[in-house]
Amino acid sequence: MAKGNGGDTIIAEGVKVEGDFTSNGNVTIEGHVSGNVAAGGDIFIGENAVIDADVTAKNAVVAGRVKGNVRIDEKIELTASSNLEGDLETRVMIVAPGAQINGRIVMPDGKKGAVSVEEEIED
Amino acid sequence: MYCYVYDDFVQEKKYERELDAIENRITDLGLQGKTIRLALFRNADETIRDEVKRGIKTVVAVGNDATVHKVLNAVIDSGAVLALIPVGEPTVLAHILGVPGGVKACDVLSQRIIEKMDAGMVNHHRFITGVSIPGANAKVSVGGRYDVTPLVKGGIEVRNLSVKEPRDPSDISDPTDGKLDLVIETEIRKGFRKKIGVTKLPLPSFNISYKKNIKATADGAEIEGQEFSFSVERKVLQAVVGRERMF
Description:
Radius of gyration of chain A: 14 Å
Number of domains of chain B: 2
Oligomer: heterodimer
Distance between the termini of chain A: 48 Å
Number of helices of chain A: 0
Structural class of chain B: alpha+beta
CATH architecture of the largest domain in chain B: Sandwich
Shape of chain A: globular
Mean pLDDT of chain B: 92
Radius of gyration of chain B: 19 Å
Number of domains of chain A: 1
Helix content of chain B: 10-25%
Order of helices and strands of chain A: EEEEEEEEEEEEEEE
Strand content of chain B: over 45%
Largest interface: A-B, 28 and 30 residues
CATH topology of the largest domain in chain B: Tumour Suppressor Smad4
Structural class of chain A: mainly beta
Largest sheet of chain A: 6 strands, parallel
CATH class of the largest domain in chain B: Mainly Beta
Strand order of the largest sheet of chain A: 1-3-5-7-10-13
């Protein structure tokens, strides 16, 4: 039997969310968010998204702009169009050429401890 | 055991043959019961409640989506089971519940597959399918924790199931999850191209406010106001569904 598309949250382009936004499931953001974002599942931040908030989630794929601290339990993927202005805490990180990160990177399970990146990552 | 509630419009001549066929099939299947005929200024609520007190277990709405809306409060409050025999249009709810139109619905009724479903509430009005409401100048407030605002032209739907005829199962909200889906459609223009963005938030309760009075449509019935408060009543409706139901 067919089921509906579950409890995932989508914030599309043309919509603004302000305040402490929380969701137990997966979250896709293509619009504007300011305040705090906490997802119990995975978060996808689209290319046109503008996030002015601290973000916490289990896993993340970031293609848009994030201004705020990001704390990811497991893995984050920063695509070529991503722009992160803030500190990042994650266990596993994948960074595409062209991604911009301006902030401290902390990898709790990493042998070398905190890694600081303050320049644009390029090819 | 069964109480058949005929909407006033199904008593028109054009439905006579269809109703005859339905009544014959009901007799063949041994599902006969009491009949209540709705009229323009007759409220069926009290009659339905009285019939349930006398032992009626299933209230069968014979008509369209608006017919269901007319019997909904009495059915839920009295703890009866709701069944549908779709006649006329629109019958979005019957389609989602897997109940075919006309005489074929009698066979679904006889199979008696019962599903417990949530009911939505908007300003103390119950609804089953959903509510459509203008998107312009709307502000959605979720428990005082965060606000959601459409920045461009669009519309808002609050779905317990689906407001419009669903194109595929992804258009239908789960009516058993204790949440309503707040769906905001926004029109994004990029050069000459236009794209529709669909925001979807599954929420147990929220408010939508406007600066002036607007009209919302809940299960086809109009509600006017400036503030709309939404919540869910968990699994309060027992409905007879078909094997082809979409949730």
